[in-house]
Design goal:
Elements (H helix, E strand, L loop, with lengths): L1 E5 L7 E4 L9 E10 L2 H8 L2 H6 L5 E2 L3 E9 L11 E4 L2 E2 L5 H4 L10 E2 L11 E5 L3 E3 L6 H4 L2 H12 L9 E4 L3 H12 L5 E5 L2 H9 L4 E4 L5 H5 L2 E6 L4 H10 E9 L11 H6 L4 E4 L7 H9 L9 E6 L3 H9 L5 E5 L1
Parallel strand pairs: 11-12, 11-14, 12-13, 14-15, 15-16, 17-18
Antiparallel strand pairs: 1-2, 1-4, 3-5, 3-9, 3-18, 5-6, 6-10, 7-8
Length: 336
């Protein structure tokens, strides 16, 4: 079968012929139908500093966000049937470590990640532990099913520490997950929703999915444009954005951090966090499987169509990466 492969420790990828995977007794074989491109995939494609330090398996079939059909199941699998349409909880957990035994499987100490530590979904068939397969509602279009994994990040970021009903929310960074945060906050009853980014293309999408006010931070300062809010969701990984986020929070407000910072940040913890009584949440992965149930319940109520801006075929993957690199897209989905 043909797969999109990271074949060398250098920028780029290759389409290569690889063997169809074999499955273990507790795994399923999945025929990938629709996949979507993640910022992690772009990092591996660009071979940036993060990818150079993180990727150990070369060659590696990339990709981890998808919806596909189960075509084979191991003899120990009793919760998934052939023909089921599934997506993946991509953080493959051991169920044995301290974190797993304390219901924190998303923080497993022996974590493997699909498309990062083991071969992923930008190909025809992939293997997956059955415990990581999420059975989907067949009535939901496959392109929406393929974005549930990043949508789970957005749901956890917005809802960390409680709901947002009637609360004013600011979202820093309008990449695909930031845009999903806007849709989630709107569906969950937020008051005013503010969104900040430098891309007018993405700010237009932000308004389409529910932002009341968008701010291009190259043209105006968020502190003046927003005033004060109850909740900030930080999805940009910017030091200056973090400082602004803390400054606009009401005392006792909540900060959810999803964006990845590439260097230590300068924060006045005494004045901006401790004395203000700020509640800070670090978001990684999704709670297994609590978040997936929330995502499934929210999907019919979310306005996600404006976020999926491009639908390509897998052999157009390079075009998808170029769109992402130039920030000329929302979410890019691929027909496999």
């Amino acid at each position: 079968m043909i797969a999109a492969v990271k074949a060398a420790r250098a920028p780029g990828f290759s389409f290569k012929e690889v063997k169809e995977p074999e499955i273990g007794d507790s795994e399923v074989l999945i025929r990938s139908k629709v996949a979507s491109i993640c910022g992690t995939d772009l990092s591996i494609y660009l071979w940036n500093e993060w990818a150079q330090g993180r990727i150990k398996k070369i060659p590696l079939t990339i990709g981890h966000e998808f919806a596909g059909e189960v075509v084979e199941a191991g003899k120990n699998v009793d919760n998934i049937e052939i023909g089921d349409i599934v997506s993946a909880e991509t953080h493959i957990f051991c169920n044995e470590c301290y974190s797993c035994r304390n219901n924190r499987r998303h923080l497993c100490e022996n974590m493997e990640i699909l498309g990062v530590d083991r071969d992923g979904c930008f190909t025809e068939y992939l293997s997956l532990p059955a415990q990581n397969a999420w059975k989907n509602d067949r009535s939901v279009p496959n392109d929406l099913l393929s974005v549930q994994e990043p949508l789970g990040n957005a749901v956890d970021t917005v809802l960390a520490g409680g709901g947002v009903e009637g609360k004013d929310v600011a979202i820093f960074g309008c990449g695909p997950i930031g845009l999903m945060m806007i849709a989630v906050a709107r569906a969950c009853g937020a008051g005013k929703i503010f969104a900040s980014d430098s891309s007018e293309y993405r700010l237009k999408i932000a308004r389409a999915v529910g932002a009341d006010r968008t701010i291009n931070f190259m043209e105006e300062d968020e502190r003046e444009a927003i005033g004060k809010v109850d909740v900030v969701c930080e999805a940009s990984g910017s030091d200056s954005a973090l400082q602004k986020a803390l400054s606009i929070l009401y005392p006792g407000g909540r900060l959810s951090l999803l964006g990845l910072f590439h260097a230590p940040v300068n924060v006045n913890l005494t004045d901006d966090v401790i004395f203000k009584g700020i509640e800070v949440h670090g978001i990684t992965g999704r709670h297994v499987y609590e978040t997936w149930y929330k995502v499934a319940a929210l999907l019919p109520r979310l306005n996600l169509k404006p976020i999926i801006t491009h639908k390509l075929r897998l052999d157009d993957l390079e075009k998808g990466f170029e769109l992402m690199k130039n920030r000329e897209c929302g979410k890019v989905v691929l027909e496999v």
